[in-house]
UniProtKB/TrEMBL annotation:
This is Tpr domain protein. Signal peptide: none annotated. Keywords: Calcium. It holds the Pfam family EF-hand_7. One of its GO terms (molecular function) is calcium ion binding. SMART domains: EFh. Residues 236-271, 277-312 form the EF-hand domain. It comes from the Eukaryota.
Length: 501
């Protein structure tokens, strides 16, 4: 029974059904602890998986307790640099960081780095993973002086590893390091730091695109051809992709391994028909989809590779977003300095976010929070380029979805309301300049009403003195006190009176 519960829990966890996984894993843990003891290797496997299931539900206090117990046992048995200990340590650092227990997380990172240095060497991939992680922890705390040297060291090491091998994972790690260092440099805001950050983003994007346009694109198209013709005509809905996944996951483990993918392809395509998918290519398909590097394809990875298409992948999307944010920040700096922003770079910023929105919509769906965040960012870029009509349409869609899923008292929803009110006010000013008083008054009145509603929600959820409430009050004073609104209302009222006489 313990084995069945463990395998079921593991599969559910991989499928994203973390609460159900937790139930089965707790049953398996109790049985194995009673039968084998708390420190038996099979018990520790369940303990670590249960900790991960809790972590993925944001039950970080419980996750940290379970993962700490597993890590201490692995470390005592085989040392901190043991492969099982490293996997658990990575999860544990994540849970500690999520609880803002930064000192404890830092101590664990340093302990593991020292152990990896001794066992593998300073430039080994395992050592670099935890140096990168510690740099990210410092970045999260805005300790940029501590983060930068670690991230530079990780990047230098990963450049060497990537140049010495054709391994896809080495390249993926390299691009991640480029992006992480660039993000820290971007936060420094100095001209030299921003220039270096931009260069890193562009280098990583260029290299990623080469991968996408080359073998990576071919491999992705392999998935689309196999599963499009073999099952459902590339039905990219959740239900369609889950059905496709289940056809291949014959042992119902929640993952597709190399043998299962080979067997499926052989069952669909008779010898001499179908695409030229040899064993090497099928292995590349698994490597392409396997973003968490466990050697198999879980459901989330399968959905991602089926939805990504050959144009972008998650790495290139994140790089484009960060580069877009840098260009956006550059524009703001120039405006603050009274300088005219470079129109071509603002146009590039818009182009980057448009590509990201297309890719996010394909990858996650139109109502996913990641997609909505990208749409909101693009809308504000459009607003900065005086494209308010399109910005208004986008922000209305985002606000509608967030109201429905998060409620108005959520900070993300309130942020969208602020953005929409700003755009409505801008449109009102434009209409006023064209002499369209009634329409201008309507937009301005809507902006004020939206801010009043947002302020009430913010006061109730966050409090009168919360930064969000303060911002809304400032926007409200700005909108309701503008000559545009007052003049439009006066002219509209006058027009109505004249019309009635």
């Amino acid at each position: 029974m313990a084995d069945g519960c463990f395998e079921s829990g593991k599969s559910l966890n991989k499928l994203g059904k973390h609460a159900q996984a937790e139930v089965d894993l707790r049953t398996a843990l109790k049985i194995r602890t009673d039968l084998l003891g708390a420190e038996h290797e099979d018990t520790l496997k369940v303990l670590a998986e249960l900790g991960d299931a809790c972590r993925r539900q944001s039950k970080n206090e419980e996750a940290a307790r379970l993962l700490r117990e597993a890590y201490d046992a692995y470390r005592a048995a085989k040392g901190a640099a043991d492969s099982n200990a490293l996997k658990v340590a990575n999860f544990l650092c994540s849970s500690l960081s999520a609880q803002t227990k930064y000192d404890e997380a830092e101590a664990l990172f340093r302990e593991v780095i020292a152990a990896c240095n001794d066992k593998y060497g300073a430039s080994h991939k395992n050592t670099l993973v935890f140096k990168q992680g510690l740099g990210g922890l410092f970045d999260k705390q805005e300790k940029l002086d501590d983060a930068e040297p670690l991230l530079r060291e990780a990047l230098a090491g990963r450049r060497k590893l990537a140049s010495a091998t054709a391994d896809t994972y080495a390249k993926t790690d390299l691009y991640a390091s480029m992006g992480s260092l660039a993000l820290v440099l971007q936060k420094r805001k100095g001209s030299e730091a921003l220039a270096e950050a931009e260069a890193l983003y562009r280098e990583a994007l260029t290299q990623t695109r080469k991968d996408i346009e080359g073998k990576s694109a071919d491999v992705t198209m392999g998935f689309l051809v196999v599963f499009g013709e073999g099952i459902l005509g590339v039905d990219k809905s959740d239900a369609g992709l889950e059905a496709a996944f289940a056809k291949v996951d014959t042992n119902q483990s929640g993952k597709i391994d190399l043998d299962e993918l080979k067997a499926y392809i052989q069952s669909v395509y008779e010898t001499g028909t179908g695409p030229p998918l040899d064993d090497k290519f099928i292995k590349e398909m698994v490597e392409k989809a396997d973003t968490n590097k466990d050697g198999e394809i879980d459901l989330d990875e399968f959905k991602a590779v089926m939805r990504a298409g050959p144009q972008e992948n998650k790495i290139s999307i994140n790089l484009m977003k960060n580069l877009g944010a840098l260009l956006k920040h550059e524009r703001q700096l120039k405006q603050e300095q009274g300088l005219k922003p470079d129109a071509s770079r603002t146009e590039e910023c818009e182009h980057l976010y448009r590509r990201c929105l297309t890719a996010d919509t394909e990858l996650y769906g139109p109502t996913n929070e990641t997609t909505l965040t990208t749409m909101e960012t693009l809308a504000m870029v459009m607003h900065s380029r005086d494209k308010d009509a399109e910005a208004e349409e986008m922000l209305r869609r985002v606000l509608m979805e967030r109201r429905a899923s998060l409620g108005l008292n959520n900070e993300d929803t309130l942020e969208t309301a602020l953005g929409l009110a700003t755009v409505l006010r801008s449109i009102s000013q434009g209409m006023q300049g064209q002499g369209i008083s009634l329409a201008a008054a309507s937009k301005a009145t809507e902006a004020e009403a939206l801010l009043q509603e947002a302020l009430a929600a913010s006061r109730q959820a966050l409090g009168e003195e919360h930064a969000m409430s303060v911002r809304i009050k400032k926007h409200l004073a700005w909108v309701s006190g503008t000559p545009v609104l007052n003049m439009s209302l006066r002219q509209a009222s006058l027009g109505e009176v004249v019309g009635n006489t």
